[in-house]
Amino acid sequence: MEETKKIESFYDLNAWKESHKLAIMIYKITKQFPRDEIFGLTSQIRRATVSISSNIAEGFSRNSHKEKLNFYSIALGSLTETQNQLLISRDVSYIGSNIFKNIWDQTIIVSKLCNGLIKKMRSFNHNT
Which chain positions lie within coiled-coil regions (predicted)? Predict the structure, then answer.
């Protein structure tokens, strides 16, 4: 029987681990964006992606389920923003279809994990 590791820090959360992985993917791919996008799309998508894991981390440290829910919801909003910017990046040919699919698939993983955190916090709010 597999032993479940106790979650002691934000970086133990799968949602944080996968969002961190997404941020690394975004940083790597945006290095190849045109130089004139450094203050445009490159900066926007990097900030949105970093915001996902940052809000998961901040939410983890909050004491109330309501506060946690708020930060996890903000993380999900930043993820949606990232997805929008990925679509733009693909549509202006900054990202090829294979790389886009890999990153998009990672956003789906993060979305499911964030929604799981949100659902869990909502269940605590309804039970109190």
Answer: none
